[in-house]
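Hi, here's the filled form for the chain we discussed.

Project: internal
Contact: R.S.
Residues: 656
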Amino acid sequence: MILVYLCEWPLAALNTKGESSIPESKEVLELGLNFAPTPKRVPVIDILAGVEVATRRAKLQVEVSEELRARICSVIKNTKVRQNNMKPSQHQAIASLKRNDTIVIVKADKGNATVVLDKSDYMDKCYMLLQPPTYKKLKKDPTQVVKKRITDLLKDLKAAKHINMAMFNKLKPTNCFAPKFYGLPKVHKPEFPLRPIVSAITSPTFSLSKFIASIISPLAGKTNSYVKNSSHFKLMISEETIGFDEIMVSFDVKSLFTNVPLPEALDVIKDKLGEDENLDDRTTLNAEQITNLLEVCLRTTYFVFNKEYYEQQNGAAMGSPVSPIVANLFMEHFEETSLDTRFRFWKRYVDDIFCIIKSEFLDESLLFLNSLFPSIQLTSEVEKNGSLPFLDVLVSRFDDGTMKTSVHRKSTHTDRYISYNSNHAPHVKKGIVKCLVRRAYNLSSESSLKNEIDHVRSVLSMNGYPRSLVDKVKNELKKKKKQVDTTTLNEDPVATAIIPYVSTMSERIRKILWDYGIRTSFKTKTTLSNLLTKVKDPTSNENKLGAVYKIMCECGDFYIGESGRALGIRIKEHKSACEHGYFTKSPLAEHVWQEGSHVINWNEVKLLDISQGMVERKVKEAIYINMSPNNLTMNRDSGMELSPLVLRAARGHSHK
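And the returned structure, exactly as it came back:
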């Protein structure tokens, strides 16, 4: 299997200034981009903040909260980070790869391979995708125009009392920026073309799209052709037989999202909404209002790439939460128009279709399907040697007309999963084992099950997993017993603490928190993907949301603050306060005006931390203030009141 693809450039490009050798760089990349290095330092502030947020939400009595904090702080004080899971030479290779600006490191579109491309080649491939007529280059960023359009629509709905103030505030676009375009290499195709991807989480339409998606999603999936997932398809096909004059064929819609005919799709959805007797249970909006909002979401198709702005000319917006549902609903309409007795067995998962048809009808059927809508064009793949893949299932026919299934993997699939040596929580690793074993049982016919289980065992062993863990999970599933988590029992948690995972320490913290009814959710902060993959346009510090920041004066004094909005907006407010002497709006203004000709270093604002939750952000702000020399801060107070136990724990690790 190939774990790392080195594309169209010399291997020497992996080596920057002789800092790391090619074998060491490849060794790092072969770990997989989801590999998490052991942190060099315990992320104490993140742990303390996550625990503090959960403790406050749990509304424990004061003495109980202090007892909990004392136990957590004791664990932090007495636990050492486990032995590093990477060699020094590998850390050096990571640093070298990070500095190498001549390459792009990215995961493959499918198969979990790591792909390294020459940066100029990657950029050329992206620009080839962004050509007319599919895309159009824009003169400037349209974010503010889109933001105003959506806000005005929502204001009208609020004025007419179709939505209340809470819903208006929920859907109104704030702190939004242009969606970001990038590409993932299709390593299973010649010359590795890119699959276009748009990350739209910062889009002004994102919240509205999620809201509309929740309204229209119940409309989909009610047809006989609907396939929920691979397991669902396996159940469907297992009872089927196939005649000697029939063939298995799969159809694939070319670039469905960018080719969905929006006028027809919107008409279909509007009609379905009008016929939905349960619509009033989901929203106060009527079918026309929903469709109007949906159209805005679907037609907002712009994005940024390499500091330039583009717009998709047709189809539904890539990256929008509502686009897959719209595409699915349109394809259901397509099926109502196209299906007849020629297609004896027709099952569809979004844009992938599995069909059983008489061989004599194949050519005319494809021509017929491609004649219905000019923008909707299908390609076909016919069974080979009596087998045809569909989703993760390989369907095979036999002489007696029966059909059996097994797990399908593309030839480029790497069989690489999160390494057992990665800094991920044990339940994450066990979850991978469960997923693979469960997939073996769900997708394999009896005749292929043993081979698949043997394959899973072999593959996981190559990823460092102990054989005993695979056998344990297999026996659990085989006996159809649900695993009981003794840390959660049958009680409902009163709160959830979200903390970074640190081996041994996090498990101990989890057990302590559950003594107080608090569930723990672990997050892995740093992976090789975070460190090495830089395919999206970077977000500048001034556009980052949820910042805890530090502003320095030339005299050495400083101010520590926090903001849930874009950092640049808050900095502008500080500047304005300093210019006009608005002491109540910024301690910086008081410092500048009372101390005389002091100069604030506005261009050197330091980003201390990022937290999207307001309480967590204020906890971190207070920790940073209290860790600073009192005679140097301009802060008028110490921020949110925190237990001395928390502050001592933070200070105790600040220099480690």
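Let me know if anything looks off before we file it.
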